[in-house]
Amino acid sequence: MLKCFEKILTFIGLKRPMYEEFRTIYVNHKQLQSKDQFHEEKYSSNHVVTSRYTALNFLIKNLLEQFSRVANFYFLIISVVQLGIDSPVSPASSFLPLVCVMGATAIKQAYEDILRHRADDKVNNALVKVIRDEALVDVKAFQIRVGDVVRIHKDESFPCDLVLLSSSEDSGECNITTANLDGETNLKTVYSVEPTKPMRSASSICKSLRARITCEQPTTDLYKFKGNMVVRHKSRPYDKVTLSVKNLLLRGAVLRNTEYAIGVAVYTGQETKMQLNSQHVRPKKSVIERRLDKFLLFFMIALLIESIFCTAMKWGYATLDGTVTGAWYVSAETATPWRVIQDLLGFIVLFNYLIPISLYVTIELQKFIGSIFFGFDLDMYFEDPETGEKLRAKANTSDLNEELGQVQYLFSDKTGTLTENKMTFRKCSIGKRTFCDDNGELWETEGCGGRKLSRRETLDGQELLFFTILALCHTIRVERPKSFDRDSAALAPNDRRYTASEAEVYTYQASSPDEKAFAEAARNYGVIFHGTESGVSILSVTSDGEEVIHRYRILHVLEFDSDRKCMSVILQRSNGTYWLLTKGAESSMLEKCSTGDRDSVVQYSGELALEGLRVLVIAHKELTEEEYRQMSLQLLSAEQDVANREERLIEAYKSVECNLEAVGLTAIEDELQSGVCETITALRDAVECNLEAVGLTAIEDELQSGVCETITALRDAGIQVWVLTGDKRETAENISLSAGHFTESMQRIRIIDQQSAEGCRESLRCGLEEIETGGSPLSVQYCVVVDGQSLQFLVANEYSELKDSFLELCRRTSAVLCCRCTPLQKARVVSMVRNGIKPEPTTCAIGDGANDVSMIREAHVGIGIFGKEGRAAALNSDYCFAKFRFSRNALLFHGHLYYVRLAVLVLFFFYKNVAFITAELYYAFFSAFTAQSVYDTLFLTIYNMTMTALPVLLYGLFEQHLPRHRLESEPSLYRNIAQNRKLWWRELGGWCTIGLWHSVCCFFGVAAVFLVNDWVGTNGFVFDVYAFGTVVVYCVLACVTARILIVTFSFNVPALIGLLVTAIGFVLVLCIYSVSTVTLLSNHLTFLWAYFDISLQPISWLLLLCVSVLALTPDIILRSMQDIRTDRLLRRRGTAGELPDAGASEFHYSADVQQGTFVNNGFERADRTEPDSHSGPHCSQAAGSSNSVQFSSKHTFHTNEAFEQQDRV
Predict the structure, then answer these.
(1) Is position 871 annotated in a ligand binding site?
(2) What region holds the P-type ATPase A domain (predicted)?
(3) Which CATH architecture has domain 423-483+502-670?
(4) Active-site choice (413, 701, 716, 787)
(5) What pTM was estimated for this model as a whole?
(6) pLDDT tens-digit profile of 29-50?
(7) 809 Cβ contact list (under 8 Å, min separation 6)
(8) Which of 553, 685, 731, 996 could be stapled to 585 by a disulfide with Cβ–Cβ 3.0 to 4.6 Å?
(9) Is 641 one of the catalytic residues?
């Protein structure tokens, strides 16, 4: 019975089907032997579904999703209550707004889902060629089954995940791009299975191919695939071939530069890796949304208290003799429990409009449209000068716009984030000798930083060995001009000529910039890599003016992994000997090198790291035939073990990469990105053992432009920057200095090389003592340096006291640098800060690589950089752009405006509802607490939807309270909105107080006239309760509209149009309602012609004018005081010389290109300074000129103090 129930759940899609650990696939649905038992499992169809709804479940599913919101569910309960009691107002007053709000949301979601359905239909119905009955037939993509053999042509997208069987190329290879998967635009090579390479036609596959694939069940990892293929041959035993990700064609990838490719489907439909990675991630919740939930709870409690109070007053004070209930025409009531509950529910219904029903919809619209502005910002636009790629800033989500204005901790990667990830070969050491690169020429030097001794025209034995290893130990693909390929097409591979002049136009496509830098450097020195043909790497070496061609067959490539932290290649020379080449990080490679000059490697690696260069150790090992045979068998055995392949391969690699000889060192410099003051070098450490050390390489990754200014500005804005890198400590500290993350005046507290929790505890204690005894934080600044070895104790859950002490130490310092970090440690550091500091701070993580994804997802806000090694970070982030310096624009400008706009929008919604609905409470005292409404049902229905929604929405989209140049040039302004300051309870109290004052003026100002004489109308018109309520609504609407104008600093065309549309729309609605005889909102036509009668009474317009002026007087006074204080501040700063004195402050209209508005801003000066004049010290001054930084901090401190005074006002 249970199994039957599970099958039903699986059939209707409520439960995923249960599969074995591995799946067995028969290629082309044919068994290996005709006599074998043949049973194919049923796997997911190739029908792709990205939509959320169907025609059958849309209504129910959408309603459930919308009612999961507190406000919607609350109004549903109120509407149901109105149907069950003697409601004081028409149930339509609650149902109509609820239906309109939910209907608008449902229409939006339905439209978006229709677009998804259309996109799905286009993909599912695309024609694909599949081999059926020894012929290629066209079938629709959704009809593809696991085991089908599919043929894809050039520039077509793969419809499912395929294992490549053959291609139009003789080598069986094909080129693909995976931009739809990981954002990478470079070509990648996929290799076919060796036994199936010759099978290029439908007939040969149907007649000759009998194969069975055993592979893992589908996973989300795009870069891992393990399986085996057993192929039957007529003349020899079965072939068992190992399958890896190099044989896998992923759905969404596109075939390039290859006429066709043939593959067998292994994963289809929702089980493809692309679809598994498209699952919705749990949404993040912003600080404003969390505070909004508390505000809603507060107003619900206030509503309940008001209702209880009025109910008590009705059955207490109001039943006494002499009150209105003693009138002869009012029948006496008995206080029964049900009657009391009815009255309580009636007052809840009457006061429920205190909760703004349209708030959520307005916020969604404001966020969605506001996020579009993020991509329109031309200051965050970048065009890659090398590729010509145009990169705009992009908001992957609109839910966290305001969170950009609340960041307190920024965690940044280094390589590719702060640096260009554009590697340049700078220096190297070979044995005891050191060399440097000078414009593509190799010079021997006197030590790492010494003078140049002589230029190396030709390479000697050790030098040639060193650069030969650099030219071969990689996975580079060479792109040549097509003319070269045509000229050599007719020649046999061994007869082709490769020249140095031809190699000058080669383009090296590498998965790592390091490898590209090594290959280009070796090419400059005469050791040229010409590419790989049929598994053979071709190398030319210039010797005595002649070029000698060498060929090396690639036997195994031992890919880099985080455990080994190295990369190796096993080659076979033309003479049949075997050669193992390895490169990796110094910290791990030294343990693996048993021969070679290890002392020189240690010495030079430290010196090169101090120069900020990335250091790698180069090593090699000669293999005997017996050693290679054993290694090959061990690797083959590990690769064929599908269940334990990863673990066994790691062990096999470790045993292979031992007893090596260290050849040398390389040094690469990592350039910091513009706008980033800290550098993070995500160096992938390589762990090798017992090799022969040949030397070192040192490459430079250049710092991006604007990095120093950006980090300085972020620090002045109150954001503490943490740099998390995999680099050596010396390299990381040097980059931090050049990026402005550290300054020379900072005292460094180092927690490094700790092997135990007790050692970390002692280092933390010493650091805290040093800070406490070091004097004032203003006179002495500290920074923390911690390595990965120590971090494993500091972020571990079992050492909670270490976590607390480490956080306390970091909070007392100006900057933190974590070096030698793994990707997991980066995420744990972010989690430690996010969850360990109370109140919870807002964290932001920024990175460019796949190793930064976990950190980006862990932070409150994730920012991805369009990196050179892929787009994984950008695809998994909340916001992405091209350069680190754009984070200054994103946080200080966009984040600031997003937060202020949304905060004022939220406060304004509560304010206007308090000003509107509190009149019902006042009127209760005049109506004997009978729950009689002072307003007609129409006003209760449309107040939040049409009367007041549009102006505040446009305010939330276009308001700019400060000009852009001030927000970016005065980072301290960011401090004024930190910690959700605009939504503190006192801010809400201030807005609600103003709302109460406006409600008192509007109600009692009108009531005072009518209490004296209700015959104030002309032509015998008498103001009844609904006419009275209508005049009150006029006054409330005037006050609310004027209030939005008073708090506005930038007047723009959309806002003015919004006010005009609101006014005209209000008049038209009242006109239609006044002549309508349809009893939709009320059982009585109490408002028939009322609008026209009221509009003809002069007293109505006189009351509107007088009451509005009285109510708005405090608002005008407060705004005037704020402007006066600001003007005095600007004058004081001008007199002090911090800003040029421009005399009296004036209103100036300045066109803001990005916003498309005209700014009317009392804060702006006539002679405003350029933004760069206050952007902080340049990178070149960061190391030695700390006074400029202190001056900037002092300058912004006064600004911060002045604006805090304005907030208090």
Answers:
(1) no
(2) 126-273
(3) 3-Layer(aba) Sandwich (3.40)
(4) 413
(5) 0.74
(6) 888 776 666 677 888 889 988 7
(7) 749, 764, 767, 768, 771, 784
(8) 685
(9) no
